[in-house]
Specification:
It contains 6 helices and 11 strands. By secondary structure, the chain is of the alpha+beta class. The protein has a single domain, classed as Phosphatase 2c, domain 1 (4-Layer Sandwich), CATH 3.60.40.10. β1 and β2 form a beta hairpin. This is Protein phosphatase.
């Protein structure tokens, strides 16, 4: 975990897994004037270097937007940056500090959760074909879970997701290689361990047979519960 002089404690971990490239990316930027830290996590669409580059570009552009401008402005900046490239696309979630908590913006199936030291509450809603049909009372096919309906390159501003993180709470950002491999209950159990939560989530996703890149970023962790378990899972070295 890291702690900036005036910012939150945070940490990130990522692994390529069985894919050819790691098309996930994270970024954090501290405003030198306000000391506010903006976080982003991106998941490239596909298993190509262009997807990896799009994710890096999008995350880097999003965190450079001042928190006062809001998540929609950060997503728009990421979109402009990605569209300057000839190819490549990604999903993206950005978290900006506001009133002691965070404001969130996202496209695609990356997620943000609030962490209270015991349980996780999902703050984002997946922009996938599966979620589209589920909200209309229909049962989606497994493949629909992986078909996104918005991306950084293609989303219209009206399609940007928006939410707020409650206060006080920790913040967890994940790519689908984590949250579509591990249940929310399993993720919360790992976070109760007195260790590097982001690394444990990525390690566990790979150990559980994850077939995708796996990435997690945690910030402003809530205090550990008294008497929390201290046994760690067997370590899997990220690829």
């Amino acid at each position: 975990m890291h702690r900036l002089a005036t910012g939150p404690r945070w940490g990130a971990a990522t692994a390529r897994g069985p894919r050819s490239v790691n098309a996930d990316a994270t970024a954090a930027y501290t405003d030198p004037t306000t000391g506010e830290v903006v976080f982003a996590l991106a998941d490239g669409v596909g298993d190509e270097r262009t997807a990896a580059r799009a994710a890096r570009i999008a995350a880097a552009a999003a965190v450079r937007v001042p928190a006062s401008q809001g998540p929609a402005a950060a997503l728009a900046a990421a979109q402009r940056a990605v569209r300057t490239e000839p190819g490549g696309d990604c999903a993206l979630v950005v978290a900006m500090p506001a009133d002691g908590g965070y404001r969130l913006g996202w496209v695609g199936d990356v997620r943000a959760y609030a962490w209270d030291g015991d349980s996780l509450r999902q703050l984002t809603r997946d922009h996938t074909l599966a979620q589209y049909f589920r909200e209309r009372g229909q049962v989606p096919t497994p493949r629909m879970e992986h078909l996104v309906t918005t991306t950084v390159r293609t989303a219209r501003p009206a399609e940007f997701g928006a939410a707020e993180a409650p206060v006080p709470a920790g913040l967890l950002l994940t790519s689908d290689g984590v949250h579509k491999t591990l249940t929310r209950a399993a993720m919360a159990e790992l976070l109760r361990l007195p260790s590097n939560g982001a690394h444990d989530l990525v390690t566990a996703a790979l150990a559980a047979g994850g077939r995708d890149n796996a990435t997690a970023l945690m910030a402003d962790l809530a205090p550990r519960l008294p008497g929390a378990a201290t046994t760690k899972l067997p370590t899997v070295t990220p690829a």
